[in-house]
Design goal:
Number of helices of chain A: 5
Strand content of chain A: 15-25%
Oligomer: heterodimer
Helix content of chain A: 40-55%
Strand content of chain B: 25-35%
Number of helices of chain B: 6
Helix content of chain B: 25-40%
CATH superfamily of chain A: Glutaredoxin
Distance between the termini of chain A: 50 Å
Radius of gyration of chain A: 16 Å
Shape of chain B: globular
CATH topology of chain A: Glutaredoxin
CATH class of chain B: Alpha Beta
CATH superfamily of chain B: Histidine kinase-like ATPase, C-terminal domain
Number of domains of chain A: 1
CATH class of chain A: Alpha Beta
Radius of gyration of chain B: 16 Å
Largest interface: A-B, 33 and 42 residues
Largest sheet of chain A: 4 strands, mixed
Number of strands of chain B: 6
């Protein structure tokens, strides 16, 4: 069973290694809607998956945060990608699998994953 | 509707986050002999005035501005009462809110507790400035997590979202839960 001693060991190992990352002009923000509508539609595993991938791929310029109701409940889970330049892309009905594709295409390759955007969903 | 009680807990705890809480206490206490599971979410946030409190279980009441319905608390209330259990919400302006839901364990209408470890982990890791106390108890076997203890050990320089710390918190929750419930799926 995990003990607090193990946390102390992690602290000692990490001393001096951790840089508190401040958001700067070059950072990308990924925002996940976590109100009742988002949670009921499956936002929790999406948020966790996005955070895990960002950590696994060491995407240091990306932060994953949560927000409340975005106001488009029928399209939840919703993920917004706020690019460094200020542009916002809204992805809708996101699943953990789609979240992986969005990171791969949008964040790593720099191409919007058009098939999952709100514009695409509205066109049917 | 939510599909798991743990998602109701996440949703209600998000209300505590929005209420500006600095400490959120979550407890899940199950007792198979009395056939009861009690869930409490308590915070020290801004609380509610009496008038607001009286409307909070009405699905057509909300304080948010994006839509004029608020389903989180009504969902939680319904999920408890549909099992024959009880629901209570107490709040005081400026002092905080306490939500308690009691479920009859054997009721066919009870949702599973679900991924409570995922819920608590999500709350801790994504709310860096808020402390959490989490108690999980099954038939008297229990464990308690207090992020203030973690924070004291880590100091100010290592956030909970740091991969190794996040993994430690997840494992801490998973392993202690398994010890407490001995594999019983609630």
């Amino acid at each position: 069973m995990k003990t607090l001693e193990e946390l102390k060991a992690i602290r000692d190992k990490m001393k001096g290694q951790v840089e508190i990352r401040e958001e700067d002009a070059g950072s990308i923000r990924i925002v996940v809607g976590m109100a009742t509508c988002g949670i009921a539609a499956g936002a929790r595993p999406v948020l966790t998956r996005l955070s895990d991938i960002v950590q696994e791929k060491a995407l240091g310029n990306v932060t994953v945060v949560q927000t409340g109701c975005i106001g488009l409940c029928q399209y939840e889970p919703i993920v917004e990608v706020h690019a460094a330049g200020g542009d916002k892309t809204t992805y809708v009905m996101v699943t953990p699998e789609k979240a992986e594709e969005i990171i791969d295409m949008h964040i790593i390759k720099g191409q919007v994953a058009s098939k999952y955007t709100i514009e695409s969903a509205k066109l049917g | 509707m939510m599909t798991e009680i743990s998602l109701n807990i996440l949703d209600v705890a998000q209300n505590s986050v929005s209420a500006g809480a600095s400490l959120i206490e979550i407890s899940v206490i199950a007792d198979t002999e009395s056939d009861m599971m009690s869930v409490t979410v308590k915070d020290d946030g801004c609380g509610m005035a009496e008038e607001q409190l009286s409307k909070v279980t009405d699905p057509f009441f909300t304080t948010r501005t994006t839509r004029n319905i608020g389903l989180g608390v009504p969902f939680f209330k319904m999920s408890a009462e549909s099992t024959g259990g009880r629901f209570k919400i107490e709040s005081e302006k400026g002092r905080g809110t306490c939500v308690t839901a009691e479920f009859i364990l054997s009721s066919i209408d009870r949702m599973p507790l679900g991924d409570i470890t995922g819920t608590v982990h999500t709350l801790i890791v994504f709310n860096a400035d808020i402390d959490f106390i989490y108690c999980y108890s099954v038939d008297g076997r229990s464990f308690r997590l207090d992020t203030r203890e973690f924070r004291e050990i880590l100091g100010g320089g290592i956030p909970f979202s740091e991969p190794e710390v996040s993994a430690y918190i997840r494992d801490y929750l998973t392993e202690n839960k398994e010890t407490a419930d001995e594999g019983i799926i609630l």
